[in-house]
Each structure stands twice: as C-alpha cells, then as structure tokens.
Amino acid sequence: MKNSDSGLKYNSRTEKMNGFEEGVEFLPAMNSKKMEKRGPKRWIVILAVVIGALLLSVMISLLVWHFKYRDVRVQKSYTGYLRITNVNFIDAYENSSSPEFSILAEKVKDLLKTLYLGNSDIGPYFKQCEVTAFSEGSVLAYYWAEFSVPKYREEAMEKAISQGMPTENVIGRRSHLLNIDSLVAYPADPKMAKDSRDKSCYFSLHTSPGVKTSFSTPGFPNSQYPNNAHCQWVLRADAGHVISLNFKTFAIQPCRQPPQDFVKVYNSLSPVEPYALVQLCGSYPPSYNLTFLSSQNVMLVSLISDATGRYPGFRAEFFQLPKTTLCGGTFRNASGIITTPYYPAHYPPDIDCIWDIQVPSDKNVKIRFNMFYIAEPGVSVSSCTKDYVEINKQRYCGELPQFVVASNTNKIEVRFHSDKSYSDTGFLAEYLSYEASNPCPNQFTCKTGQCISKALQCDGWNDCGDFSDELSCTCTEDQFQCKESKICQPKFWVCDTVNDCGDNSDELGCECAAEMLKCGNGKCIPLAQKCNSIDNCGDGTDEFNCGAVAPVNCKDYTYKCKNNQCINKNNPECDGKKDCTDGSDEENCSCGTRPITTKGRIVGGVNAYVGEWPWQVSLHTSIDGKHICGASVVSNKWLVSAAHCFQNAAGARYSDPSKWTAYLGLHDQNSLNSKNVVAVKIKRIIAHRDFNDYSYDYDIAVLELENAIQFSNTIQPICLPDATHNFPVGKSLWVTGWGATKEGGPGAAVLQKAEIRIINQTECNKILSGAVTPRMICAGYLSGGIDACQGDSGGPLSSVEANNRLYLTGVVSWGEGCARRDKPGLYTLVTTLRKWITDQTGL
Ligand code: 4AZ
Q1: How far does the centroid of ligand 1 lie from the alpha carbon of residue 757, in Å?
Q2: Are the C-beta atoms of residues 540 and 534 closer than 8 Å to each other?
Q3: What is the model's pLDDT at position 149?
Q4: Where exactly are the structural domains of the chain?
Q5: 271 CB under 6 A from ligand 1?
Q6: Distance, CA 811 to ligand 1 centroid (Å)?
Q7: CA-closest candidate to residue 761, choices 827, 811, 712, 818
Q8: Contact, 127 vs 148, CB < 8 A?
Q9: How many alpha carbons lie under 13 Å from residue 809 in its C-beta half-sphere?
Q10: Catalytic position from the list 699, 725, 787, 792
Q11: Among 664, 605, 601, which Cα is nearest to 632's?
C-alpha cells in the first residue's frame, strides 16, 4: 500500500523519475538519517528565496502603485466671476459673437492665466479657461477654468483656489489694463460641466421694458424635450432692474434621487450652488405659483436631462421690474398685512427687510403668520442659518402651520433675511392690536397669543398648537381625563389598546372585574357567558376560541370550514395553524405578502416604497386620459374597487368596461411604461346592485380583467377576509392611493400611504349624523390631518394580520371633504360584502 501510495503521489512524473522514487524508497536507515539532516538546510534556502522573491514583488508593486498613483490625474473645473472696475458695460458684451465681446474675453482670459500661473499650487495644473458671459456691474465677467491635477496635489490646489489665491493677490491689481476687485471661483457641478464653447441649446434673451419675454424647452409643446440635453437660457434685464421669471407650464421627468432630469435657476450667470435659486423636477399644476425673482439684472436657467424619458418640458416667461430694495417699512395703523416681497412669488435672494410696527399706545400688538414658507434645502428649523424671520431675537424658518407671536407692548419689529441662494414662497402675516386685558374678545386665548373659538376649548384636540386649550378642563360625561396632562379625551378611546393620553392612563384598569370577561369591544360580561353559543358581547368575541378546532354549531360569527363544520376561533384564516378538521382554513393562502422587503398622499401621507403595496391598482379611463380611481388585486383575474367609480356622469360612460385600463405594479403615475407595470384592459365591471348613489351604501364593484395576469415582485393579490374576520376598533390600517394630497388639490404622482385607525362605528355614526351604514367602516383621526381624498376611491384599506399577511379590510369610499376635523374617511367594509364577492367571482 505504501508503494502504491508513493506511486500515486508521483504518478504524473515521467518514467525517468521512477529511479529516484525507488531510490528514496529503498535507502538504508542511515542514509535516511543523512537525508533528514540535509533536509532542513535545503528548506532554509528555499524559504529564503521565496521570502526574498516576495519582498521584491511587494517593493515592485509598491513602486508601480506609487508612480501610477502619482500619475493619476483628476480633471477639475471651476466656474465663477470677476468684477472689472475700469470698463463700462456696453450692449455688445451681451453678444458672445461680437468683436467687443471677444476682445474683452481675451483680456480676461489673459488675466486669469497670469493669476493662475503665478500661483505654485495652481499654475502647473492649469489647462484652459473660457469667458462665458458679461453683465453690468461695472462689468462682471463669468468664466470657466479647467485644471488637470495629480491626485496627490488635488487638495492643495482646491485649497489655493477656494481661499487665498483670488482676492488677496488680485484686489486692485493692475494687469492687462483691467482693474479687478474681486474674483470668485466655485467647483463646477460635473453635471453642469458643459463645454462653455458648446452653444447648442444655448439661448441668450434680453427682455424689454413692459414686455413679457417667453421661452420654452426645444420642441415644446409639440414634442418632448431632448434626452441627454444640457440647455441654458441666459436671461437679462436692463441695468437697475431685477427679473421676474414665471414657469407657466412645467412637466419634466418625475423627481428621482438623485435627480436625473431637472431645471435649475440661478441668481447669477454662473451655474454654481451658492447662487442656485431653485431646482425643479416632476410636474406642477398650472395653479402652482412658480415665480422666482433675481436680485440683479441677470438669471440663468438650465435644463439637464438623462438618456431616457419622454416629457413635454416647460414654457416660461420673464419680465423686468425696477430694482428697489424697498421691503418692510413703518406701520402705524391698528392692524395691517405684511408679506415678503412679491408674495406669493418666491422672495428674491440676498435681501433684508425690517417691518417696524407700532399700534396705538393703549393697545398691544401681535402678528399672526397665516402662511409661512421659508425653507432651504438642508437647513434645520432649529438653527435657521440661511433665510429666516426674526422677532425679539427668536428666529423662525421652515414650513410652519399658522402661528402667532404676541408682544406685550404696542411695538414689534419683524426682520426678514434671505441669503444668496434658494428662496421660497415667504410669508403672509397680519398684525393686530389687542387689549392687554382682553386679547381675544369672545374667543379663547391660547398661551401662544392665538385666539380660537371657545367651542374648541376642552374638546380633546390640540387647537392652539401648545395644548393650552386642553389644559385645566373639566371633562364632560363623554370624556375621560388623562392622568398626567389632564387633557380630556373622547371616552370611546378608553381601553381601545391605543395610548391616546401619552401616559397610557386611558389604557389602564381596562381589565374587567374578577369573574368577568373582557369583550373585543371593551364590554365586560360574566365569564360564564363565554362559549355559550350566544353572542353576549355583541361583537362575537365571547364566542371565539371556544375549544378552537372542535366543531361547534354554526353562528354568524363562527368560521365555516370547507366541510361545512364551524369553528370558534378569532380570524383563523391563514394564521399558520390548521384549525378546521379538513385544514381548509389554511388553504388559498397565497395572498397578502410582499415579495419586496420594505423598511418599514393621501392627505397627510408619505411616499410608499416600490413594491410595498403590490395589490394597489391605478384605474385610468380613456374619457379623462388619467388616473381616476384605485382598486385592489384579489386574484389573477379579479380586482375589487368602489361602485361609485363606475357611475355614468353627464355624457361620460364610466360603466363601460372598454373605457378603463388597470395599471398594476405601478408606483409613479409619470412612469406608466416602467418595466414593473402591467396595463390590462377591463372585461367586465360588476357594481353592486344595491349601490346607493346618495348614501354610498354598498359601494363595491368587482372588475374582471381581459387577460389573466402574472404575479411578480410588484404585483400580488391581497387576502380577502372571511365574513367573520374581526377588525377591532383602534386597530391601525393603511390606506394607499394616488389621490389628492389636500382637499381640492391635485393627485399625487408617487403612490402615497398613510396609517389610520378604526373608529368606533357608533361614535362615528353620531359624528356623521347617522350616515354610517353596516356596510361602512370609519377610519382616520377625528383631529383630522390624515385621510383618503379624491382619487383614492376604490383603493385598498389594508390591514396587517397574523404572520404579517395583509387583508383587504375596506375600499376607499367617501368622506366629507378630506382630513377635516371630526370628518373621518368612510370605507366599504369588505367582510359584510364578502359573500357577494364570492357570488360574483367565485373567490
Ligand atoms: C373621493 O372623492 C373621496 N376623505 C374619497 C375619500 C374621501 C373623500 C373623498 C375621504 O374619492
């Protein structure tokens, strides 16, 4: 065996080697000892050679890496401007093909070259520079400069350009017969790094007094703007004027992160971040005010597009306004209105305003900000480092709901500051005088100084914003007093498993007395009534889990297995346990799951993740050519929606299935062609026969698809709950859709989701004066703010149940307005119409 072992070991060697093999094998014992002695020496030599070779190769690679690294060059572009003080601006400088432009541009280039070459951190890497434009002041020259710098010198060069080099060396310097007093350079955004000599898609426009000058994206409105475009519009007004720019129509590729297609407006002819006024993407409804002001007589609009997409683009117009720094002022009336300049247009950058307000001396003054939009990207509302309003040394910024600032004298000073970049809509405020002894006649005075209707005091809702209207209240008999905050909450929120008070006091002591059973609706019944086959609770919960799998007599609330046996178990379907003797409660469970794992407008909602609601459907009609209603996928052939979506309206046949297309797997209404999306025609619409157009009772419809669809990561069916499925009051549910994000507003482009809670049916019916039928379920918040809205109709109200499976609890149906206080949304309660769905679809 040993021999054959050796033979195997060397079996790839040639015949000649066999002698050596044999020699080794048959050496006498002494010789073998010699061999052992010689062995280590040979290994030392081999080891030394190997280590040496290794060291050598490491050194060689180090050297190669080092020289290669040293030689890696980075291309850097800077853009900025310099101010020439000894040249007067002439009109010819606006035309880059004029000889005057070329002469001055050459001088500026020479000057820049001299400056760069004179600096040892910059000079060796300078490649070229180009003058792109001139504007008044005396003359501002805008330029691009390019450098090619070894990686290891990049930082030093950046530092030299950003700090010392320009101003110190240059101020007052006489060179090339040009006097310059400032030189500003910023790293160029690589996306903006268009060759400055490339004049394709470049437009220079000078408006005239009293004239509105229009411009638009190439091809607008008859064709889409080009892909891979980099377009620039240089906008100019006469000296001493500012520009007002307004986008009349705006529809480009939807916003992505990072943005692919976007329009950026600059308060300068240099496309640099510190002068960016706004970056826009997506589409805006015509009602949206997209007006921007410059602080000088130039503006630059740029459009960047990627390789894909077919969108119309924009049409804009601009005109000039005399440059007045007039804003703020002295106000001596008893009340008045103040706004940021040009409100509701975006306020101009780089301004400071002071409103000095004084009301009659026997009164105090307060300011109510009705609109407040002073937000800048990346600025926190606690620091307000860029644009802000300042009153009594307190700064305010961001997007704030209505608020009041009161003074306890008759004077108040409001300061407003906007920096050079990004502007917003600004504020609209009222100043009012008030009696110190009676600040809110016939109203309640919040601690903030705000006056609210007395009816809103002690109603359980935070109307003042600081809860001051809900403190020191005596609760009514319909209310419960929270322990810590002393706030009075509606009693039907007590013991609903949700901590409404914040200190959990509304959920304490919810156990029933000994010998009593707590029902799902909070009621306590004698324990002896559990499992007596009578629904003593009123919600069937006393008859749930009564020996689970043992069949019981069938009742309204018992789950019926396929073999017609009934079981008493709360929501036994697809919970992972076979409760029916035939296991039918665990059949047909391929539903309600999301293949794409998610991290986890509707009014008050947020963007959904792609694939988060794979049963969500968008229904479009050829009548309107856009999204009209939502629906839910419940099988590969059937959708569930709301009957009211399919009611014919003046001349429009919404009941005709051929008018409808269902988009499945859709995330963004502007990406109907996405690879995740499947568009299917509707073959049959079955609206509930008893749907009542007035009361919206029986607001349900099932839609048969023209072709069976294939499920995917973004298309999945939601589970239909059994008729006995119990969704308790207070439970959190999710409503999703592309409906309006505010009452009367436009629909959302990206699917919105919002978490809402089931509201007690009886209480809801009281609030809504008896409009709630047994086929409806109320969900939302009585405080308002989060709700479904127009365009969400027909869409799902999804509930997370056992094993993270989602069930269709409701169908978005109706509501009084959207997100209004005391007006929760109404949903068609699927359990009550479950049998009807089976009858129509066989599901
Ligand atoms: C609608 O018009 C609609 N606030 C849907 C839901 C609600 C209101 C309106 C609920 O489609």
Answers
A1: 16
A2: no
A3: 92
A4: 73-188, 202-322, 328-443, 616-841
A5: no
A6: 11
A7: 827
A8: yes
A9: 26
A10: 699
A11: 664
Of 436, 467, 437, 463, residue with least CA distance to 451: 463
**pLDDT over 70, % of the chain:** 88
- Report the residue among 797, 814, 823 best suited for mutation to probe ligand 1: largest number of ligand atoms under 8 A from its CB: 814
CB-ligand 1 contact for 521 (6 Å cutoff): no
Q: Specify the ligand 1 atom closest to the Cα of 823.
A: 4
| Structure letter (DSSP) for residue 764 | H
Which of 618, 789, 822 has the most ligand 1 atoms within 8 A of CB, as the residue to mutate? 789
In this predicted structure, what is the pLDDT of residue 391? 96
Does the active-site annotation cover 466?
no
Class of domain 73-188: alpha beta
| Amino acid at position 593, single letter | T
Report residue 465 as tokens: 């914003």
| Level-2 CATH architecture, domain 328-443 | Sandwich (2.60)
Whether 818 is in the pocket of ligand 1, judged by its Cβ within 6 Å, is yes
Average pLDDT over residues 396-402: 84
Are 202-322 and 328-443 the same fold in CATH?
A: yes
For the cut 50, the answer to whether the pLDDT of residue 30 exceeds it is no
Distance CA 809, CA 516 (A): 30
pLDDT digits (tens, 9 = 90+) for 513-567: 777 887 776 678 888 788 776 778 877 777 776 655 678 888 888 899 999 998 8
pTM of the prediction?
0.57
Active site residue 793: yes
Is 789's C-beta closer than 6 angstroms to any atom of ligand 1? yes
> What pLDDT, in 10s, does the model give residues 380-391?
778 899 999 999
CATH number for the region 616-841 comes to 2.40.10.10
Decide whether any atom of ligand 1 lies within 6 Å of the 645 Cβ.
Answer: no
Average pLDDT over residues 590-606: 68
Nearest CA to ligand 1 atom 1: 790
In this predicted structure, what is the pLDDT of residue 554? Answer: 87
Does domain 202-322 correspond to CATH entry 3.90.226.10? Answer: no
**Percentage with pLDDT > 90 across the chain:** 50
Question: Catalytic residue at 699?
Answer: yes
**Who has greater pLDDT, 243 or 531?**
243
Q: Is the pLDDT score of 301 beyond 90? A: yes
Q: How far is the CA of 448 from the centre of ligand 1 (A)?
A: 34
CB-count burial class (<10 Å; 0-12, 13-18, 19+) for 16: exposed
